[in-house]
Design brief:
Belongs to the cytochrome P450 family. With about 325 residues, this protein is mainly alpha-helical. The chain is built from 12 helices and 8 strands. The strands form 4 sheets. A two-stranded antiparallel ribbon has the order 1-4. A two-stranded antiparallel sheet has the order 2-3. Strands 5-8 form a two-stranded antiparallel ribbon. The chain starts with a helix and ends in a 6-residue tail after the last strand. The chain binds protoporphyrin IX containing FE. Protoporphyrin IX containing FE (HEM) binds next to α5 and α11.
């Protein structure tokens, strides 16, 4: 199967699952599921495509590992290799099929967690930067100081870019609402009582726009708020104030990887191209009524249309 078949099945699955979440009458999708019709039939078919794709990855990785035992090559070592090594040496499974299903679920979890979250974050980032030319200039100044063969450590030196990405995630967190189910009765530190079986939701989107939390300029895009101290060095926020990556023991495992990915893409794109938003980017007026559409992720309505203009200079 080609990657596009998998990508379509993956997108369809996410869309159908999130439509269940927002369904006004949940009984409707449950009936469709039991009769195997409509969107629920499609969901079942899409899940099969995704599972087959993940099993194919495991099969080809296992083949490569066999080859690597004779001709070791460190470049073939990736996250899946690590999980495969752990499942062989440290985790016991009743049979081979349970082990394959475990690895399949790991692959799908990482694709689900890391694929659209990062691209959604970058969409809002470029939209915001387009509407704030002084930020665009400051980021460009910073990224053009890097050598074309920049390293992981070089990316860490991009303080302004890190601040701008964090500011963008504050205003447009890709996971805008999150939910937890209470497993037993509890009383929160502020005295709120929650009973077993209740859902406790929080909205990172709303929290990022609360004056009480971020001050009177909370609706403005100001990367500088992450650089207070006057030394130009990025200052992280308390995770409970900034829950774009969730917080506590189940915080996003890919947070650092996400910043590396986002910075790499921004550096690579901005050095080569001027990115011009067709709608002009985030003007003050549009910031009051942002063009979002709600699914599991906070996507931009209609996608983000841009023109790319090749830069007429070699930054180095
Ligand atoms: C800007 C990009 C990203 C954002 C905003 C983000 C956000 C989040 C959030 C809010 C959660 C908590 C979900 C929940 O428990 O309900 C989460 C969990 C997770 N994320 Fe990310 N994520 C991003 C990128 C990534 C990447 C690139 C990876 C890895 C490739 C990743 C891997 C994970 C994993 C494995 C979990 C589950 C952690 C656990 O339950 O213990 N994420 N992420």
């Amino acid at each position: 199967m080609d990657n596009s078949g998998f990508a379509k099945a993956f997108n369809d699955t996410v869309d159908i699952c999130s439509s269940r979440f927002f369904a006004p009458i949940p009984a409707v999708w449950r009936i469709k599921r039991s009769l195997n019709i409509g969107s629920e039939k499609k969901l079942k078919e899409s899940i099969k495509i995704i599972n087959d794709f993940a099993f194919e990855i495991i099969k080809s990785k296992a083949k490569q590992e066999q080859h690597d035992r004779i001709y070791p090559d460190w470049r073939n070592q990736d996250l899946l290799s690590r999980f495969m090594a752990k499942t062989s040496s440290e985790i016991e499974f009743d049979d081979e099929s349970k082990k394959r299903k475990f690895l399949r679920d790991i692959i799908i979890s990482f694709i689900l967690a890391g694929k659209d979250s990062t691209s959604t974050a970058l969409t809002w980032f470029f939209w915001l930067v387009n509407g704030h030319p002084h930020c665009d200039r400051l980021i460009l100044n910073e990224v053009t100081t890097l050598d074309p063969t920049f390293t992981y450590d070089d990316l860490k030196s991009l303080n302004y870019l890190h601040a701008a990405l964090s500011e963008s995630l504050r205003l447009f967190p890709p996971v805008p609402i999150n939910s937890r189910l209470t497993v037993s009765d509890d009383v929160w530190p502020d005295g709120t009582h929650v009973s077993k079986g209740w859902f406790a939701d929080y909205s990172a989107y709303a929290m990022g726009r609360m004056e009480k939390v971020w001050g009177p300029d909370c609706r403005e895009f100001k990367p500088e708020r992450w650089l207070h101290g006057g030394d130009g060095v990025f200052k992280p926020s308390d995770q409970f104030k900034f829950p774009a990556f969730h917080c506590g023991p189940r915080t996003c495992l890919g947070k650092d990887m996400a910043f590396v990915q986002m910075k790499t893409i921004v550096v690579a794109l901005m050095r080569e191209f001027e990115i011009i938003a067709v709608d002009g980017g985030a003007t003050a007026e549009k910031m009051m009524d942002p063009p979002y559409t709600l699914s599991l992720l906070l996507k931009m309505r209609g996608g983000f249309l841009v023109r790319l203009k090749k830069r007429g200079f070699n930054p180095n």
